[in-house]
Specification:
By secondary structure, the protein is mainly α. The protein has 2 domains: about 100 residues, Winged helix-like DNA-binding domain superfamily/Winged helix DNA-binding domain (Arc Repressor Mutant, subunit A, Orthogonal Bundle), CATH 1.10.10.10; about 150 residues, Four Helix Bundle (Hemerythrin (Met), subunit A), CATH 1.20.120.530. The protein has 16 helices and 2 strands. The chain has a two-stranded antiparallel ribbon. Strand 1 and strand 2 form a beta hairpin.
Length: about 280
Amino acid sequence: MARAMAKIRSEPPRKRQAPLESDLAFSNLFAQARKPSPKAEAAGAHAERRSVSEQVAHRILSMVKSGNLRPGDRLPTEQQMGLAFGISRPALREALKALSLMGILESRQGGRYSVTDLSPSRLIAPFNVMLSTNDFDVNEHFEARLVVDLELVRLCALRASADQRERIMKHAVDGRAFFQDSVGFRLLDIEFHQSLNDGADNRMLSAMAQGLYDVGLDIRRVASEMKGNIKKSVMQHIEIAEGIAQRDPAKATKAYRRHLEHVRDTTLAAMRKVAQD
């Protein structure tokens, strides 16, 4: 017994296990995030009026924007984050939920959150859900497409390669074979608009344009079956394609605006038809 006690006294004291490097990195990041920026201090009362969960969501989002948090990075546990930010778990969960709805974070198995791949299709998903659940307003839809689609067409006229311009023109001209085939035209119409998005070479705008295109498709099916609508759309597609082929943004966007006005007017006419029927 005495020898055993002597052996214990002679052994050097064990060192505490060092924290993992990843945990230290997150702790440092969160410590920096908690420090108010000069801009935030200058904002004064306005910053104080923001909810705690909103402030935390903004801090995490800032860390993603700055590159401190990258796609695939796994956040600490809720308990660790609550300690790091000095907030309650309900407030933290509200912030994490908001960032998840925005497509910034996703919840993985085990309850840990990680930064998503931040792809345009993922980031635009909440936008598509919002559009699909709200009442369809033709005029709002038209205004939104004016903002997004016209810029895409302008960029397409400037950036599209020779192959892309040729593909756009082919889709436009091929539409003449579908004057009496509404289903075939709708399939070709998707390809035409996608070729414009591809030529613009802007993934975020393209994702937004695709989301807007998908809104109100049910009523657009009715519009495509009304006499003369397909022929007019095809001729407008050709005018748009000509502007892009000539690398003339003004001509292309002017033609596209007329096309969107046609889409708006025929959609309204289709809605009236459905209401009467």
